[in-house]
Amino acid sequence: MSQFKITKAKLVATILALFVSFSLPTFASEGLTPEKQEKEEVDMKKLIFGHISDAYDWHITTIDGHHISIPLLCIVKGQNGWDLFCSSKLGHEGHYTEYNGYRIAEEGEPNAGKIIEVSTGERPLDISITKNVLSLLMSCALLLIIFLSIANKYKKNNRTRPTGIQALLEPLIISLHDDIIKPSIGKNYKKFSSYLLTAFFFIFLNNLLGIIPIFPGGANLTGNIAITLVLAVITFLLTNIFGTKEYWKEIFWPEVPAWLKVPIPIMPFIELIGIFTKPFALCIRLFANMFAGHVMVLVLIGLIFVFSSTLGTIVGGAVSVFSVLLVVFMSLLECLVCFIQAYVFTMLSAIFIGLAQVEPHHSK
Amino acid sequence: MDLLTPDFGLLFWMVLSFSILALILGKFGWPVIVSMIEERGNYIEESLKKADEANAALANIKAEGEKLLAETKNERLEMLKEASEQKNRMIAEAQAQANIEAAKIIERGNESVQLEKDNAVKEIRSQVAELSVKIAEKIIRGELKDAKAQDDMITKLLDEINIAKS
Fold it and tell me: pTM of the full predicted structure?
């Protein structure tokens, strides 16, 4: 009974501390002069897009104008060949510096926020290890470590009950493999199961890492169109490269009344478009869902600053209570969305691949 | 819009790292995990089946044992019964035999007693006869001292024989 009281007291204290800490910036800004306050006017668009788009360094926080961030590696190939340097050489947002003929484009310029060549203003070939790339590499390494160690555990002793992370992931792997991949694709499932399982866990892990607000999480990787595009293209290629003859026949000569096929091939045209819309939908769905989730959370947090800068500290403090509660709720919802989106992507990929594995039906 | 134009650098790294990830996991990860899980599932299923079979066999053995036990009990009872019967029979037989033997011995004893008696009677008779003859001789000698008396005697005897003859 007494233990329960203590935990309850702890909980209340934690919540209070959270609210106070969230309200602190508002108290801090109160002491500023009017001109400075005007400068501090919250630019929500910049704030949100700064958080969800890619960057050359991994920004953690800014205290009194000092940027605290992890500098990353820039790899570019411009007119003078390959160049490799640390991103801190290019300065920080607001005061970019030139380095070796490269600089980061300012807001308003074309290619804003990207490395450009000082002389021409053109983009060099840029394969820098950006925030998203680093996150991508870390998540790939994490996936390799997790699943190779699990595989090793199975190989070493297959007679004991699963323990630890093996026990956590086994039901997931089994249900994906047996309930989605196998029934959706049919007898040729073995060729595709590796890709689908990899895609699921890749998306799921990166979705979850995206929710964590601070390094090593926080990169909006699955909410980036490049990532979802690559995944969708792989599904597209697997679907069409391994498609059966029957699949192509159903596209170019579907079983519909003849006037729909000749002289104007309406149905084949629609089917052909369908080939591309399916993976396109995959790409956009994942991107938009994760993107929107991040924006929602950022907007709710941003509300605190907007209210406190326009209506004063007291209103901002009151808003922070609701904002934090809503953010907690949204984050929990996002956890669910993380799983659902990974699941949906895998399931739809499996279904699309399975649809291309049709066998000619012999029935009349 | 900036958001919808994929960045080349990220595309490049994504293609590279994701294909490496998928290849490595596709070779050393998923097939191992899936096949091992399947194998373990089969093993568990088989083990359960075997355990069931063993249980059934055990139940069979138990039943058989009980049956055997019951049979043995019956047999023992029967054997005991038989043994007691045999005992009774043997006793009865022995008694009968003993009775016969006893009768025989008694008979033989009786016989020998009779024989002894007969012999004794015979001896007594012969002795009596001898004695009587001697006595008669003495008496006759005494009476037949003179010739006349002898003659009378002879005649009388002859008469007697004759009378007996006629």
Answer: 0.73
